[in-house]
């Protein structure tokens, strides 16, 4: 049973993307071992009516135990923590709560870390420090609209004063398209990917075709070569 897909309440309409009642506050949980970062994110969530913090956790193990109980819409996840890291915690939470959205919030900004986050199932990526306006916008877009991981990563690079990627860095691929390409790069067949991602074969095929078109490729080998080159300039 999906923990984020409750039945309609008193006949009210639900949001098919998040599985929660429309116009309800977004429930947020924070996983970060740094007290200052937890406090900063908690303070940013105090905008009336839009967000409610349902849990704050200092370790991945604590998060894995408590988050399924409080059923947030989205988790703000640090990567570097004592013991289990944020990537492993993300993987495990995604198995338990398949509709849960997870945004990586970290001081790390490099292609390898982003790819690891994608492979773990992250839906967003923000680098510290992040402005409050961008922070709240990414939260809403991730839960309500499913904004692409790579688009948010690009916003982060621009706002942090880093050099923006060239047009050939796969920023045009969505999170799902990047995930499909990641599994293809590991040698999986298209028919094997649905079990890894928890989506249908038709959905995998659709993401695969869109990726090929965006990359200007006509076959798998060409697409993988272009995707790899774009992610490893």
Description:
The protein has ten helices and five strands; from the N terminus they run E-H-E-H-E-H-E-H-E-H-H-H-H-H-H. The chain has 233 residues and is an alpha/beta fold. The protein folds into two domains: 26-159, Response regulator (Rossmann fold), CATH 3.40.50.2300; 175-231, Orthogonal Bundle (Arc Repressor Mutant, subunit A). Strands 2-1-3-4-5 form a five-stranded parallel sheet, sandwiched between helices. Helix 4 links the parallel strand 4 and strand 5 (124-127). The longest helix has 15 residues, at 201-215. It starts with 25 loop residues before the first strand and ends with a helix. Residues 1-21 and 150-169 have low confidence and may be disordered.
Distance between the termini: 43 Å
Approximately how much helix is present in the residues? 40-55%
Strand content: 5-15%
Structural domain count:
2
Mean pLDDT: 76
Strand order of the largest sheet: 2-1-3-4-5
Judged by helices, strands and strand pairing, the structural class is alpha/beta
Give structural attributes.
single chain, 233 residues, alpha/beta, Rossmann fold, Arc Repressor Mutant, subunit A, 2 domains, 5-stranded parallel sheet, 10 helices
Summarize the SSE layout with pairings.
Elements: E1 26-31, H1 35-44, E2 51-57, H2 60-70, E3 74-77, H3 86-96, E4 101-106, H4 111-120, E5 124-127, H5 132-145, H6 149-159, H7 175-185, H8 193-197, H9 201-215, H10 220-231
Parallel strand pairs: 1-2, 1-3, 3-4, 4-5
